[in-house]
Structure formats: structure tokens, C-alpha cells
Amino acid sequence: HQAIRASIVASAGEGFLARTRAYLESQVASRALEPRAGLDPDAVLSRIEDALRRDDLAAALGEAENLPSEARAAMQGWIDDARRRADAEAGLAELDASLAATN
Asked: Which end of the chain, C or N, has fewer beta carbons within 10 A?
């Protein structure tokens, strides 16, 4: 939700009314529950969530690259953690393969 809110506020435009409307819209923004096509933050986040349900962290990280900059900034902590996990899983797989080769 934080990423969607950040995108709404960033695209608000100038003026008090535009910023107020964006603020109100960001407070009631909802997320798609099923994967959707498109490049808007909600669609990208729906595909990230779908990839995570399928236990496909690489696909989720790939989709995260499609987020607009303000949404990506809001999710940067999660993205960094997910990259560390993917690196750790790759390292474990490499270690497992090397151990199997030596036994």
C-alpha cells in the first residue's frame, strides 16, 4: 500500500486541490487481489505478490524493476531484503552442488 500511496501523491500535480485530492485518494487506495497486466503500481504489485505466492523470488524481483521510481523508493527496504535472500539462496545452492560433487 505504501508504494501505491507514494505513486498517487507523486503524480498529484500542482495546487492545493490536486494535492488534497491525491492525499484523500491515497488514504483509500486498494490493491488488486489477482495478477493484472499493466505498468501502474497496482498491476506491478499484483504480479509481485503472485510471484511470491508461487515461491518465485526471482520473478518478483524482476517485476519490482517495473515499479515507478516513487513506488520503488517506498519498497526499497523490501527489495534490498529480497535481493539478499535471493543471493543467500543462490549461495546455498552453489554450496550444496559443490558438496555433492566432492562426496
From this structure: C
Count the Cβ atoms, other than its own, within 10 Å of residue 56. 13
Q: What is the pLDDT of residues 41-97, one digit of tens each?
A: 889 999 999 999 999 999 999 999 999 998 899 999 999 999 999 999 999 999 998
Phi, psi of 68 (to 5 degrees): -60, 155
Q: Which of 3, 42, 27 is nearest to 19 (CA)?
A: 27
Report how far residue 73's alpha carbon sits from residue 29's, in angstroms, rounded to the nearest whole number.
Answer: 18
Cell numbers linked to 99: 558438496
Left (φ > 0), alpha (ψ -120 to 50) or beta: where does 32 sit?
beta
- Spatial distance between the Cα atoms of 103 and 100, rounded to a whole number of angstroms: 5
